[in-house]
Sequence to fold (864 residues):
Amino acid sequence: MSQRQVLQVFEQYQKSRTQFVQTVAELATRPQNIETLQNAGVMSLLRPLLLDVVPTIQQTAALALGRLANYNDDLAEAIVKGDILPQLVYSLAEQNRFYKKAAAFVLRAVARHSPELAQAVVDCGALEALVISLEEFDPGVKESAAWALGYIARHNGELSQAVVDAGAVPLLVLCVQEPEIALKRIAASALSDIAKHSPELAQTVVDTGAIAHLAQMILNPDAKLKRQVFSALSQISKHSVDLAELVVEAEIFPAVLACLRDPDEYVRKNVTTLMREITKHTPELSQLIVNSGGIAAVIDYLGDCKGAVRLPGIMMLGYVAAHSENLAMAVIVSKGVPQLAICLSEEPEDHIRAATAWSLGQIGRHTPEHARAVAAANVLPKLLALYMDTQSSEDLQVKAKKALKSILQKCTHLPALEPLLYDAPSNILKHVVCQFSKVLPHDSKARRLFVTSGGLKKVQEIKADTGSALQEYITSINNCYPEEIVRYYSPGYSETLLERIEKYQPV
Amino acid sequence: MARLVKFQSQIQQVRVEFFIRQRIAEENRKRENAAAVKIQSWIRGCRVRAYVRYLSRNAVIIQKIWRGFAARAVFRQMQEAAYLARRMKFYTLMAVRIQKRWRGYYVRKYIHNYYERKKYLEALSKKNEDIRKELVEFEAYQRKDRERLALEREEQEKYRQAQRLHFLLSTKQCPGVFNSPFRESPSEMEARLRRVTPVLGQTAAQQARHKLRQLRIAREQQNSSFLPPINAKKPQGPFRPAEEVWRQRQRPLSPTLRVATSITALEEAREELRSQELSARLIHHPFWLFANTHKSRKYEPMIHTRTSFEPLPYGTKHFREEKKHTLQDKEPFKTVFTTCQVFDKFGRLYSNAGKIV
Fold:
């Protein structure tokens, strides 16, 4: 055997290895092949190829492994059990940038499925290696590393704390300032995932000066970047008043309102989520947002969109109105109540309707003016219908009932209360009749209207236990009218009249 | 004497009287004693009573005065208390009036200012309207912007396509695909093809990117070890080794000196020199050694200038005719000296021809 023939054998082997690994990587992009690959035992074959001499084979093997792990968590667990992770982590420090990208891809694919797998990734010491990769020059490597860190931190607070302890946050903030859009996106999403678990983590993110950089990117033309930026800001501001104030001090209002007209749906949703997280803390923050015209923008947004994306906007209006009656009046003046009534009637989902009912309750519960404004939008019969509907979820029924009660206790607008006399159950009826009994003694026109519209008749037909509050109210209503009128409208009056006719003997 | 006799007769009577009297007195002693005691006791009683009366009258006076004093003091206190109560009532009445006014003012101004609230709600509605208008405008502007960008990109794409399909341009002899004779006028692609300028290699940006990519590849090549060359079917012949071929392919452009210098290089050099002189030179006359010594020298004219014969212009004047009037506003010829190019590329060419010297 000459030397050339010997070398030829080795070259052939190398070629076949390269071909195998490239084909496997390509096949792994399509989900239907992965089952077959798994049954053929691709894991055990790819593992030694990770330690191959040739760098391209290593990289492609890592890429193939990443794609396989991405598909489902059994394969990811197989990777963890097969002890591949320590090798990957070790070579993450050594090799060239293509390999680093592929290795970070594998780590991210493993960590995304469940907290246990992410914990396994962390236990291999991947965090230090990933943080070191964040300091590389190549933006692709930084992007993969940031993505992997984001997926690890997404699951729970301990993993986020581990990521923070590895010193990732300042590097992520530096990545956010890089010119590449993809890197900015991933870094912003990683910061959002870290900050969402607890106030301390959010404070750590804020301490590295992330808010200023995130705020600068608000008017960037890229839609996906804006999604992540707003998500990050809302996760930071949701935990406490101080954090929300810090976010607001970055002077994002009123520039943020312009993004409410972005063509991308999720950007708008994230903007309203941010506004909701800010307004829910204190009346001053809500006042700030109201004064910058945020309510009008959110109401227009609710008019434009449909479905589950409306939820943050509805909740924001509820939070604003809940703080004080000034703010509730501001919501009413900005024409929020008709929009909420439309949402209540249009939306099919129970949780959105429950949120709308809650918001309407918060708006209407302050003073009779507020209750009148809410009742004028014809909301009360709808709320009653939702409460009575057996198909609505328990949460919806409870919220509808509470909203109805709180509005009714302040409502003095009698034309809106009348329809409720007819269908309401006794616990709601009690409040309705109570309101009538408060208003009727003082207003003669209302008394006349009450009689002519048939309300008095209905009230007489109500059966109440003697001594209950309902009976007291009915008595006080009856005291507003002369006795013969009350008798006239009492049930069975026609029978008594007929009896009298029968008993009467003409002279 | 008569009296004496009378008296002597009366002595017996006196004795008898004495005894009678004694007897009477004795009989009346008890009674009279009792009466005397009674009178005495009465008198004593009267005296004591008078004394007691006197004492009690004085005691009453003292008590009267004392009681008057004490009662007046109490009265004064009661009076003061009543006065105080009246004053306090008055003060509270006035304080209520003040507080009433103050509370009304304060609540109306600071707690629930109706007019401020009305103004605020009006201003809020106005602000909402403004924001709504602004947002609508902003959205319209952004949409126009996006559409404009999309149009521009489309236009660029079509231009690039036209550049690549420039050979489909119609000629006089043969109408092109986009200029069918059955159409009234050529289609827009045809118009584009006519407007297009040919692609002259890569643009500057593309070149820069290409260069970067090549540098990166070169660095990668250096870092990673080379695979042993695959000698599957090595062609026979004196072919050059692969590294040399590779080097030749990567070789940058090496223009000749003539090509590299501009046609106005000489003028430019002169201008440069002149400007350097203008800025750098401080002294405008040359330094001549011992110049002052010439000042005192007398001028000695030359011999042949003293002669009357003219200097012969032979050898210094040309014999060609010069048409000065036709050449008046024309520039003189530029003489461009071409270098001898034979040995420019000597030893630097890739081919082996010409190396055999």
